[in-house]
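Re: export button greyed out
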Amino acid sequence: MAPHQPSQEYLDSRRIIGINTETVTDISSIDYPGHWTGEDHSWDISKFRDNFQVKFHYNNLNDASFSLIGIDASIANAFRRILIAEIPSLAIENVFVYNNTSVIQDEVLAQRLGLVPFKGGKSGLLDFLKWRQAPDPEKGEEAGSTNFDYNTVVLSLQIECTRKEGVSRSETDPFKAYNHAHVYAKDIVFKPFGRQGEHFSGKDAIVTTNPDILIAKLRHGQCIDVEMHAIKGIGSDHAKFSPVAPASYRLLPTITILKPIIGKDAEKFQKCFPEGVIGLEAVTKKEASQEGSGYEGHDGEMKAVVVDPMKDTVSRECLRHEEFKDKVKLGRVRDHFIFGIESVGQWDSDELFLESVKVLRTKCEALKKSLTSMPNN
Amino acid sequence: MSSKKKTQEPDADVSMGDVPAADTEVAVADVNDPAMLAFEEQRIRILPGSLATAASFEFQKEDHTLGNALRPEVEFCGYSIPHPSEEVMNIRIQTYEGTTAVEALEKGFNDLMDLCDVVAEKFVAAREENVSRMES
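Workaround output, generated via the alternate export path:
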């Protein structure tokens, strides 16, 4: 049987997930071979290229939003998972405590330091900085014997709290009474060694992305003296290496007004949605004179129209009211993913997405090679 | 890594916090890069009891990310992670006559790689379009 082509309208309706008061319908994707009699749904690169679209909503350094349209949930989810867990970044792995007389215990301080995000020269982080292999005691490797300038970044934090001179002893505001009462991420000093100076100097130096992260509080006479080793790692090993906060997607909401919503009802309907989703427009003379349109005799009154469904949170508030019963249908588009990527600050958000695509591709390449060299093949 | 170590003789009084600088030129290929290591390791195994058109594959160090994304065109395809604390993912593939499970899996990898290329290409184009829209 020759593949037949259903109407575009019907094909579009297949992409919609139904959202009812208490239930959802048609959740799973159905565009795979064998599901529709007489239709060819086998995967084809040129078909995918024709259908797939990317639309940017905004693209700032630390915050990007874009839509991937015409892609399967499994692929969109793979990108999201890779963004969170498989893109490398720099974080503190070892903390050597020489002195710590603050009220924060050594291990708690070390944990807090580990979570501080760092940035530096991009080419240095990407090309110069390599992965550090943990020393293998079976091979006689001692702790620290695998640390080199190309895989370990040394940082130090030496800070002591003192009383400010000439301030009354009864002063209770720590900002006025003490120097360094608060220890911030910006107090961490990068100590380049070996060839690191070539890659991480000036504006490319290793610094924290958020200088005002509070690490500890001190009082006069207390001090912290620690040295830290930062390495490259991935989020699946420890969340501190995750370069995003967060990376997520949601499906595009749809709102279909089935029967006219006019006058006071229209205003109430507008209030059921976040601002900017529903607009009010005057019913035109033409609409009012058209028989069976539902607008007869309402010339000049306000009617509700859908302006921007993307802003909707799909709260389903409009489905709770009796007056809108059978007048509105809510849904989501199954293959329209609105991604939101907020970078921690080491990479630009859009670079991170491209990196996730690269990681998935490399994964396939490596496993394809593994498949050909598989035993019993 | 071991060859690097031999050229490196840290001073006896180096404290544990100190890191020696490598005195040799760093090789371009990163020997410890997980992505590169992946090329060296044999991470797929065919499980016992498999036929040409119906086979189970065991993937080491893979998870839902790949398991769910990989969907070759077959009579049946499914994946499972037998135990959450083991880094193992199994894929079951049953094909129709005329193609084998291994071929189907290979086509799955090829399709997924092609898809990645298209996604990256369209993403870059959309980003440029966004920049020009912002400027105008």
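The CA atoms of residues 257 and 328 of chain A lie 5 Å apart. The button fix ships in the next patch.
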